[in-house]
Sequence to fold (551 residues):
Amino acid sequence: MKLRSLTLTWSLAITLAAVLVPFYWLVIAATHSSQEIFRTPPPLLPGGHLLDNLNSLQENAGFGRVVLNSLGIATVYTLLAGTICTLAGYGFAKFRFRGREPLFGLLMLGLVIPAQVTLVPLFRLMAELQWLDTYQAVLLPNLALPFGIFLMRQSMAAVPDELLDSGRVDGCGELRLFLRVALPPMRPALAALAIFLFLFQWNEFIWPLIVLRSESSLTIPVALASLQGVDDTDYGAILAGTAIAALPMAALFLALQRHFVSGLLAGAVKE
Amino acid sequence: MTRRSIPYLFVLPAVLLFAAFKLYPILASFRLSLYKQSGGVETFAGLDNYARLLDDSLFWTALGNSAVILVVQVPLMLALATGLAVAFNSTLLKGRSLFRLGFFLPMITGLVAYGIIFSVLLNQQYGLVNWLVGSDIPWLTDPLLAKVSLGLALTWHYTGYNAVILLARLQTIPTELYDAAAVDGAGAWRAFRHVTLPGLRPALLLTTVLSTIGTLQLFDEPYVLTGGGPDNATLTIGMYLYQNAFKYFDFGYASAIAYALALLIGALGLLQFKVLGGKS
Fold:
């Protein structure tokens, strides 16, 4: 038993180490110049080029602004989409009303219809509204995120009806009930939703790629992809940018993971 | 405000936004797929765009590439994920939560970010991978190997995520079932086949359907990792749609591709429900 336990743990530890190599290597590469990254043998320890790489990012892509764009868009998105998904999840979970099932089914259509189907008409809509290259063009289309609504409906189902009803008997208004009775015990689910929404928007690529144009409005993934496209790509700089895109999210995730995985999966495999 | 209107007020923002930015585009896309654009003029074309699809060898190449990933990479990844989930669930494993977390980490890395990381790691002349194996394997420039690389990147990214979904289901299988199997003299393998696998079925269905949808829509990874090359070996339907819409501005044709894609996803999803769904 002891031997089998050791074998299993060690073989999984070695696999995990291999899986984490790209993260380690990203940290290393971000601190080296392009020439150093591509020398033989490749660098395996941190170098002294991080500041040069960041300067190059700032000069060639206005990266400070790009990071602020990403932070701002993801934060505003998380707040708005979080509110909309939570309200809808509560409505669908805690009220019986005409058209509830068809409406919910319609929203869940968004889970199965590929996003690509909507790209062209959405692009034309944004062009007509003259919203190309604006933040609202990035934000609006995904605010009513079907997965978020689904997640919140699953979680809100746990709020006891008796609690809400006794509040109603006491003459408590519906909005107050929602804010004071339903929401407080939902903290873990809300945390999971917030992390999910933030990550989704932080990493989102194809839609911002389509609607954002000017260098000063780009988000991190779009800016990185455009840097990679040019001849004589500065890989030291790109990888430093990639580290900025990936590592804070990894840290955030590790800090909040307690809520995330369990909260996210609470509703995933029920049927 | 009447009592009866209250629930509608809660769901109204979501429904309105959905109608404007999802439902309307879904319907408009179908209409567009029946039109041709030339010189800013739209003319009704019936099913011409769809007929053109059938004759378009690039479309079939893209479809074939997606099919290869679907048939080879997805089953391998789900088998790996099942193995991981069983290991995560085993009392023999020390530091379980640490492992669960570590294997989930790739999932939160953005698609562009990991595409860039892999493209440099797999660089033929200078990449870390070729230095480790002491060779100069053309990971991204040989048509077959480019598919392998794309598959590797996808597996790296999504296996831990699928393992966590499977694990959640695994934890709901009653331990009495395993005790009963042990009483009947079943070894580890037979217990896995007759208790674990049937118990996992709903979660396997979910992960299969999610992976199928993801594979058919694949865009970010090939865009960054291989640009669809070499020689269209990693061109996916998602990429081909993007090229037609936003490089050639052929919106009608791109919409026809989108609808073909949606139909395919719907058909495969139904098939998977029939085969894997069972009674539930």
Q: What stands out?
A: The mean pLDDT of chain A is 87. DSSP finds 14 helices and no strands in chain A.
